[in-house]
Write a structure and sequence with these properties.
The chain is mainly beta. Helix content is about 0%, strand content about 50%. A 6-stranded mixed β-sheet has the order 2-10-9-4-5-6, with no helix packed on it. The chain has a 4-stranded antiparallel β-sheet with strand order 1-3-8-7, with no helix packed on it.
């Protein structure tokens, strides 16, 4: 059972990246999946979550209007489209699961990160 984050890289301010969180060994379609991030010297921050119902989506205030979370259950993958990226978005991004199972948690920071993460660097 594994969640693997990928798609990170170096991008200029104002640019875009799309992260992928691929599940293996189990089907993601019954679970809420999210993203957390951690920058050096900073506390972990929950970024976004999507429930098993795509109507259930939650975003941190810091990324609202810039990031979009989606899922493709046929590909067993959750995506995070990041637009208008800022230097403050620089961090390691991790796939995360919800303690609520198929629903995003009421407190987004209750998301549990999985795996090694993918590095995102925003710099000119």
């Amino acid at each position: 059972v594994q969640l693997q984050a990928s798609g990170g890289g170096l991008v200029q301010p104002g640019g875009s990246l799309r992260l992928s969180c691929a599940g293996s060994g189990f089907s993601l379609e019954y679970y809420a999946i999210g993203w957390t991030r951690q920058a050096p010297g900073k506390e972990r921050e929950a970024v976004s979550c999507i429930g098993s119902s795509v109507l259930n989506k939650v975003y941190a205030d810091s990324v609202k209007g810039r990031f979009t979370i989606s899922r493709d259950d046929a590909k067993n993958t959750v995506y995070l489209q990041m637009n208008d990226m800022q230097v403050e978005d620089t961090a390691v991004y991790y796939c995360a699961t919800s303690p609520e199972g198929s629903w995003c948690p009421k407190a987004l920071n209750d998301l549990n990160p999985w795996g090694q993460g993918t590095q995102v660097t925003v710099s000119s």
